[in-house]
UniProtKB/TrEMBL annotation:
Originating organism: Vitis vinifera (Grape)
Name of this protein: Uncharacterized protein
Amino acid sequence: MLGIENSVDRVHRDLVLGRFYYNFLWEIKDARVMTWILSSVEPHLVLNLRPYKTAAAMWNYLHTVYNQDNFARRFQLDSLCCPSSACNQQARSILDEATTRL
């Protein structure tokens, strides 16, 4: 009987250690991605990301605040241009580039 209990305890211990190791590796990778995000954004945005404890939470915040769908961006670019031939050439080229990506 004692041998079976030791085997069960050993298997349980291995499962617990495996989960601990997996969580440890995940935390390392998450910290690495958080570092990439923090080093990729403008310095004034870093303070807004401080409350978030995971890279996914940071990413979701940035996506929620700064994401624009293509229609909103196209409207924004359209509003920069007027329909006449006296349009701002730079704004027109940006609009053309954006519409080709749609």
